[in-house]
Structure formats: C-alpha cells, structure tokens
Amino acid sequence: MSERSDVLVVGAGQGGASVALGLRQMKFAGTITVLGAEPELPYERPALSKEYLAGDKAFDKLLLRPAEFWREKDVTFVLGAGARVMSVDPAEKTATTADGRIFRYGTLVWAAGGRPRRLPCAGPDGAGVHYVRSRADVDRIQRELATTTRIAVIGGGYIGLEAASVLRKKDKAVTLFETEGRVLARVAGVELSRFFEDEHRRQGVDVRLRSEVVAIEGEGEGEGRRVTGVKLASGEIVAADMVIVGIGIVPEVEPLLAAGAEGKASGVVVDLLGRTSLPDVYACGDCAAHANVHEATGDVVRLESIQNANDQASVLVRHLTGALADGERYDALPWFWSTQFDLRLQTAGLVQGYDEEIVRGDPGTRSFSVVYRREGRVIAVDCVNRTKDYVQGKMLITSRRVVDRGDLANPERLLKDLAARTDLEPKGT
Ligand SMILES: Cc1cc2nc3c(=O)[nH]c(=O)nc-3n(C[C@H](O)[C@H](O)[C@H](O)COP(=O)(O)OP(=O)(O)OC[C@H]3O[C@@H](n4cnc5c(N)ncnc54)[C@H](O)[C@@H]3O)c2cc1C
Fold it and tell me: 251 alpha carbon to ligand 1 midpoint, in Å?
C-alpha cells in the first residue's frame, strides 16, 4: 500500500527543509513528507568545508532544526539510501524509492541538490580519494587525516580553496591544482582570483594554475590500495597521500527528466514561482535552472547557494499557500559567503556579463572590495573583510543606478550614498 502526502518533498537538505518549514509557518495544515537519501536530518552544508572539516563544530550543531522540532511541526522524514527517489510518475502522482516504496503526492517538490562531479580520469576511486558534499564525505576525510601529510586538492573553486585553507591550518602540505589560468574563474573577476591565489601561496599552499590532473597514482590492491600522487597532463607526478576533489556538482534531476520535465543548464527548468513543466511538480535549490532576474546575460542559470535554496523555497511555498502578492516572483538578490584563513568574503549579485571591475581599498590591508559594473551600473560586489560594503553594495545593485567609476574606487565614499544620489547622469563613466 502506498502512502499519500499532500506535499511530498524530495531531498532533506537546505531547500527541502525550507519548504517544510515555510509551509508550517504559513499554517499549512496538510501532510508533509520529506524523503532524503542521506541518513541525517537537514543540516548546514556550508560548514562541511569550513568549521566541520576543521573540527571546530560538532555535527549536532549543524542541524538546521533538532528532531523534536520537526516532530512538533508534524513533518515526516524518511531518510537513508533506501529513501532515494528513483522514479516519478506524474500521471499517477507517485514517486518510487530505491527500496521499492511508492509515495503518492498531491504536490511534489524536488529539492535534491546535486552530487559531486567525479574526476574524469584514471585512478582509484577508493581510499584516499575524497569529495566534499555530505557529512559522510567529511567524516571519511577526518578518519584518514591523522595518517596523511601531503594533500592534493583538485579544483580552485570555493570548496577547494576552503578545504585547502583548513588543511593548511592543520599543517598539512597542500597542493592545489586548477585547470584554468586563475582560481574562482567561474564566479569572480581577475582581481579577486589574484588576491586569493596570493593569499593561499603566502599561507603555504602550492597553487598550480593551468594544471590538469590526468590520473591518480596509487599502489597496492583492493582494500589496501592507497594514493601516492597525481599525474598532470605535462607528465609530472606530484606526490600526495590524499586527494580531495572539488570540481563542481551534477544536479540530481534524472528521475524528473525521465518523467518528462524540461531540463536546461544540467538542471530542471523552473519558472519564477518554482513550477517545473510537469503538473503539480515544483523544484528549488541547486538543481533548479531558472531565468534569474539578476543574471545580466539573460542566460538560464542554476545557483548553488543557501540564499537561492531558501528564497526559491519561500516563493514556491507562498505560491502553494496562496499567499503571493500580485506579481510577486523569485527576484531576490543573490548572495554568498566564503571563509578562508582569517578572510571573510561576502558577495552579492552575479558577476556574469560585467564589463569592468573596480577595486575599492587596498588588497594589501586584507580589507577591500571589488565592484563589478556593466554599462555603468553595479551588478555585483565581492567584499573581503568589509561587511559595510557588502551591505551597502546590495542597496547599490538593487538601485540599478549608473555610478561614477571614481566614486566607486574611493573607499571613503559610502556605497549607500552612491545608491541614493540623484545628481548623476545615466552614463557609463
Ligand atoms: C562543502 C560545501 C560548502 C558550501 N559552502 C557554501 C557557502 O559558504 N555559502 C553558500 O551560500 N552555499 C554554500 N554551499 C552550497 C549550499 O550548501 C547549497 O547551495 C545548498 O545546500 C543547496 O540546497 P539544496 O536543497 O538544493 O541541496 P542539498 O542541501 O544538497 O540537499 C539535497 C538533498 O537531497 C538528497 N537527495 C539527492 N537525490 C535524492 C533523491 N533522488 N531522493 C531523495 N533524496 C535525494 C541529497 O542526499 C541531499 O541530502 C556549500 C556546499 C558545499 C557542499
């Protein structure tokens, strides 16, 4: 016999938790079931490459809400590998899990995030080779850390850089490999990339740009096999006894696409209310491809951030409960943060399509911002140890005002004042 829920949420992560929580906050009285492929209740994933990897925060401190809270709110969780949804039947309105259970739904919300992109090269995928997506991934790293001295981090995105910074603090020898000519190439401008490359080098990370890892070297067989290094396209072999791979994610959308949902940007397409192309099926979070109103190039994008998962969830919950104001849609300004060494980076807006980057302040002081303009308007800010710029930069971006380059470059000028100015001509100075 199959169970029926008024709302069935697939994915017990950030987006799934926000949907369940939001529905109850909106006094939704129907049944809610959340299916999650991990054994844990929803937790703060960002800490995995920061405080949790560092050993500074216990896992129970990462839970978004304790078990008791979810019980009180009457949200049912079905967790573990058996609860992974393998197929969806939109005509019958059912989802089938890996252990063969069939869940019927009134509304389905797909919030299944993504799995780490595997390294497309030869070599062992067992002991010594790690990804950073789940608690289980980081617990596995922790178990091997004591006997590890040399670590190869593959990927110069946020996760790779954060992991490198934590591991350097633990006094490990860290080499970071990035195929592009700079770190953070996908998400930031050149100035910020150069700053973080310099910082990592200063802290003792061996940063190797334009370095493609083509194989993981190992010795031994079966259970006893262990990593000895990585081989680069140049033929060079760099010694390592642990490899951490951070090269992006593959959205978990296959069951939905197989059920006929439209896909794009490797995710499932949603509109700005969270609706997929299937009736009564919604999606949010890392897997949801959408036409973000802040994306200057007009491309359909997937955003991988807490802000996006929460805000998309909030709009779809308000839509489902009939609470949306006329014309309201998902238009929240994207923001993100990262911590590396003693640096707190806060970003707002999306950098894609910028035609100019302007540095505010001296990066040498370790407190500065980079402002991105497109046709004279500020579309994004990256702020390092400079929260005031981050807060005020958000105002400036949403003001859509044309702003003078000299004013932006002057760290004494408050960004909130520039957001409020009325005397500037709309020109790209
Ligand atoms: C190491 C790390 C550091 C990060 N740091 C930051 C940061 O500093 N700031 C920031 O804003 N964002 C950060 N992020 C990104 C942020 O955590 C994600 O954007 C956010 O968790 C996305 O929420 P989600 O609900 O889409 O996916 P998730 O939180 O990943 O949840 C998806 C859940 O669905 C489960 N699932 C997958 N497939 C199925 C299935 N078929 N059936 C059932 N369950 C399934 C998964 O196991 C998972 O538990 C970080 C991510 C990682 C991995």
Answer: 10
Find the 13 Cα to ligand 1 centroid distance in Å. Answer: 6
Please tell me the pTM assigned to this model. Answer: 0.96
With a cut of 50, say whether residue 185 has pLDDT above it: yes
Find tokens 């408050």 and name the residue: 414
- What does the pLDDT read at residue 425? 47
Minimal-distance CA residue to ligand 1 atom 10? 305
What is the separation, in whole angstroms, between the first and last Cα of the chain? 67
**Residue 346 to residue 353: CA distance in whole angstroms:** 19
Query: Strand, coil or helix: what is 86?
Result: strand
User: Which residue's CA is the closest to the ligand 1 atom numbered 21?
Assistant: 14
CATH number of the domain that 406 lies in?
3.30.390.30
Residue after which a domain boundary falls, among 320, 351, 376: 320
Q: What spacing in Å lies between the alpha carbon of 218 and ligand 1's midpoint?
A: 30
Q: Which atom of ligand 1 is nearest to the CA of 163?
A: 1
Task: Answer whether residue 280 shows pLDDT above 90.
Answer: yes
> How many angstroms is it from 305 CA to the middle of ligand 1?
8
Give the contacts of 39 (CB within 8 A, at least 6 positions apart). Answer: 79, 80, 81
Same domain, 131 and 44: no
Structural domain total, the chain: 3
Question: What's the pLDDT score for residue 122?
Answer: 64
Alpha carbons 252 and 112: distance in angstroms, whole number: 6
In a domain, 290, yes or no: yes
| Protein residue closest via CA to atom 6 of ligand 1 | 46
